[in-house]
């Protein structure tokens, strides 16, 4: 099977999985906000977490682009489960690249099959965009490190099994004094805090983590000491393209719901789609989706070619455009549907709530503008 036919086959499997399993699970996720363990297990059985995992770890060994395409498709049905799916690849990247071989061999296959839920934890109460402000400390001791501190906003933190945790090993060195560690839940001193009651993404818990003198063996450090910031950067471009793609999928789903509604809803003797004011609005929203998608696909192309410089620039542009577009599109789609758009009987209001998160994580719009401006100062216009 060629790479193209395999990609088509995988995406067809993703679409079927969304129809048969994700869609029926949404009502319970919205009602309870509980993590969908059964849905996660089904995704693992289908091999969805294996897509870009190297074959030596039991994966399919495809490139890093296919999981991003899959996450966009899942987000058309459930942005919340799309984040859970995308988080898996984001966590595996630094483990595969930087973990000791025997550690990676013991953990990656279990994550790839869906039997272990992975998490990545960097943010803290006083350290979000300003990573160098983190206060969690990893103090060197005989045979390893003692980890002390508190983390926030950890995706799937309350259900996770294995965590990539970033901590200061040189408190005076800013971002150059951060190291990354692999910590499995269950070790002494590692406790889960509360889940944040977020506006959207129900069923995708965002959690507090507490580390109280947790011993981490030196073998569980990822990469060299004080290399943590560089390790975080390994995943950032793909994570931003992931956020952009999931926002794109969310907006696409919302506009399709509004389009169908506008064709069916009758006012003043004809479908509301035939009223020019509404017709033009829907056309504008469709154009915004297509423009944003073009930039996102250009970023995926750079990622697939391994052009790191181009990928970094386009990842920031795509995240800025796609996430801001998604908030506008989903909000307007609720408006198009009027009171029906506000009803939880329809998906439009859920998609509107979910879309907001994509603007915030992996770098806010303000951070993306800053990064784009830095690129312009250093390298000029992004004409590739």
Structure described in brief:
The chain is of the alpha+beta class and 384 residues long. The chain is built from eleven helices and ten strands.
What do you see in this structure?
This protein has 384 residues and is of the alpha+beta class. The chain folds into three domains: 3-117, Acyl-CoA dehydrogenase/oxidase, N-terminal domain (Butyryl-Coa Dehydrogenase, subunit A, domain 1, Orthogonal Bundle), CATH 1.10.540.10; 119-226, Butyryl-CoA Dehydrogenase, subunit A, domain 2 (Beta Barrel); 229-379, Butyryl-CoA Dehydrogenase, subunit A, domain 3 (Up-down Bundle), CATH 1.20.140. It has helices spanning 3-32, 37-46, 65-75, 79-98, 101-113, 228-264, 276-305, 308-337, 339-342, 348-360, 365-379; strands at 118-121, 137-141, 144-155, 162-168, 178-184, 190-195, 206-217, 221-222, 266-267, 270-271. A four-stranded mixed β-sheet has the order 1-4-5-8. A hairpin with a 2-residue loop joins β9 (266-267) and β10 (270-271). α3 (65-75) runs antiparallel to α4 and α6 (228-264) runs antiparallel to α7 (276-305). The mean pLDDT is 95.
Q: Oligomeric state of the chains?
A: single chain
Mean pLDDT: 95
Question: Would you identify the CATH H-level superfamily of the largest domain?
Answer: Butyryl-CoA Dehydrogenase, subunit A, domain 3
Our count of helices gives 11
| CATH architecture annotation of the largest domain | Up-down Bundle
Rg estimate, integer Å? 21 Å
Number of domains: 3
Determine the CATH topology of the largest domain. Answer: Butyryl-CoA Dehydrogenase, subunit A, domain 3
Shape: globular
Q: Give the fraction of residues assigned to helices.
A: 55-70%
